[in-house]
Amino acid sequence: MTNNPDSQLPAGKKQTRFHRPSIHLFPVFGSDAFGRRAETFARFFGTPTFLVAQTAIVGIWIVLNATGIVKFDLYPFILLNLAFSLQAAYAAPLILLAQTRQADRDKATSETDALHREELANMAIERQAESNERLQLLQELILQNTELTETTRQLSLRIEALNTEIRAHLTEGKQ
Fold first, then answer.
1. 61/50 Cα distance (integer angstroms)
2. Can you point out the beta strands (E) in 94-155?
3. How many folded domains does the chain comprise?
4. What is the per-residue pLDDT across 153-175, written as a single tens digit (0 to 9) for each?
5. Given Cys at both, which of 38, 55, 64, 75 links 29, Cβ 3.0 to 4.6 Å?
6. Is residue 158 one of the residues assigned to a domain?
């Protein structure tokens, strides 16, 4: 069929063979401990849990400081502003890095999908070619069968004619 070295792979390995060249792109921030934590942190920023928790913390912060219960960050809440700036300073690069790596993964996945579709098309072409070869062989066999059937019919007619001749010759000899 094919001379593809991947055709010798077990089924589970065949499914991922196109993704192997770009496997390094799949851990967004790397596969070390820092990378895993950074990815978890970046993913957490867009969750409803984060947004609700941050809103609750900011609300409590403002209420406590505005009412005078605590006085560590009075209006205009400079410390809160600093905390938001610090959060933005870390969040923005992490999110941009995640988006860039996701774009790289999407491109690699698109390329591997294209390779996979191309291989599937080639396999379909090969199957069609094999089918055409089998059909051609079948047609040749049908022609040979037809020729043999015709030869058999002619021989049967010849045998019948010879039998008739022999009977005629034998009946002449008895009379």
1. 16
2. none
3. 1
4. 999 999 999 999 999 888 886 76
5. 38
6. no
